[in-house]
Amino acid sequence: MIRNSFKKGVLSGIPIAIGYFSVSFAFGIMAVQCGLSPLEALLISATNLTSAGQLAGVPIIAGGGSLIELALTELIINSRYALMSVSLSQKLHSKVSFIQRLIISFGNTDEIFAVAMSSDKKIGQNYFYGLMLAPWIGWSSGTITGALAGAALPEIITSALGVAIYAMLVAVVVPKVRQDKHCAACVAVAVLLSCIFNFLPLLKGFAQNYGGFVIIICATVASVALALIHPIETEEQADEC
Amino acid sequence: MSVRAEFIPYLIVMAVVTYLIRMIPLALIRKKIKNKFILSFLYYVPYAVLSAMVFPAMFFASGNIISAAVGVVVAIAVAFRSNSLVLVAGCSCLSVLLAELILRFL
Fold first, then answer.
1. Nearest to B29 by CA among A234, A108, A49, A110
2. Which of A19, A32, A72, B42 has its Cα between 20 and 30 A from that of A152?
3. Which domain holds residue B62?
4. B14 closest CB neighbour out of A48, A52, A170
5. Is residue A241 very low, low, confident or very high in pLDDT (cuts 50, 70, 90)?
6. B45, A38: Cβ pair inside 8 Å?
7. Considering chain A, what percentage of its residues have pLDDT values greater than 90?
8. Which residues are within 8 A (CB) of A88 and not within 5 positions of it... i.e. 6 or more apart?
9. What does the pLDDT look like over B75-90, one tens digit per residue?
10. pLDDT for B3-19, tens place per residue?
11. ipTM of the complex
């Protein structure tokens, strides 16, 4: 069984695209506030398609930081995609070719990943192309709109838009937490560790300077712990993850 | 609407690093993973990463911690009832806006 309709992919991608438009609108405002031009903000969004990595990268670029610092920051913050790509590699149909995988890789964002993995069948390239198209358009057009219109908005509006990106991630996690109590336990461990890093005086300085590292440490510890305590039962469950 | 010459190397480094992280595992791993521990780890990891990214960072994502906390609670409450990313993000932003308006009058 394979899910490979381009049209169905596009339809599944439209809700993500609307979410991305509003979130990248906030990113566009932030990039221009940092001193980037609207076109530069658009180029970043169109070539990166990643929320957290862009949020972290823009201050480095605007502040004239080194290329190595930028590369390391992106590597750390985005390393979760490597793990997601490993999961996605198990979800793709075996007929998806190497070149097709090179294209699919570009679109493996948190939300697109979550939608692809929620499919009950194996995924084909056409479905995935459709799935990544609308979010890419939404992410890029939202960025340029925010970059051009942001200066005209009152501060209270731009401040409220700051939570949009995080609320979207909450929307990915909560339904899974409801469904699977072991996943809920894993999330609880990760959140607890993350809060310890951010609030404990000894570790606080580390978390402020190496936020990306902290995320990786917390997520790895929580996932290893749950994988040891409660390994998934069957291959079907692995397909659903 | 301009692009500065010194911006180009940043853009290339950022895009290439982000792409390679996504591409290398997806292009190279073609076989089915059988190891139960690795499969279990991969099952849990996306949700662990996302939740560590959100907490506690979301509490500092708006103008002040009280309005952001309202946004956190509303996002979780709406996500409990709906799978829609748009609805969750929209309700959360709106609740932060309302909270900030109320805080100004207090």
1. A108
2. A19
3. 36-105
4. A48
5. very low
6. no
7. 49
8. A104, A108, A113, A116, A117, A123, B26
9. 999 999 987 878 898 8
10. 999 999 999 999 999 99
11. 0.85
Contact yes or no for A15 and B23 at CB 8 A: no
Say whether B49 and A198 touch across the interface (CB within 8 A): no
CA distance A61 to chain B (A): 7
Give residue A161's pLDDT band: very low, low, confident or very high (50, 70, 90). Answer: confident
Return the axis-axis angle of helices A181-199 and A211-229, rounded to nearest 10°: 150
Structure tokens at A86: 């490993």
Q: Is B21 inside any structural domain?
A: no
Helices (H), chain A: 6-34, 38-48, 51-62, 67-91, 98-106, 110-117, 125-149, 155-161, 164-179, 181-199, 201-209, 211-229, 235-240
Q: Looking at the complex, report in whole angstroms how far the Cα of residue A5 sits from the nearest Cα belonging to chain B.
A: 21
* Contact at CB, B24 and A85, closer than 8 angstroms: yes
* Residue A146, token pair as written in the block: 């925010």
Question: B59, B85, B95, B100: which to substitute to probe chain A, counting the most A Cβ within 10 Å?
Answer: B85
Closest-approach residue (CA) in chain A for B39: A238
Q: What number is the average pLDDT over the span A130-140? A: 97
pLDDT at B1: 67
Q: A2 has which bridge partners?
A: A122
| A85 lies within 8 A of chain B by CB | yes
Report pTM: 0.78
Contact check, Cβ <8 Å, B50/A230? no
Residues from chain A that touch B54, judged by Cβ atoms under 8 A, are: 166, 169-170, 173
Which of A85, A156, A163 lies closest to B25 in CB terms? A85
d(CA B82, CA B76): 10
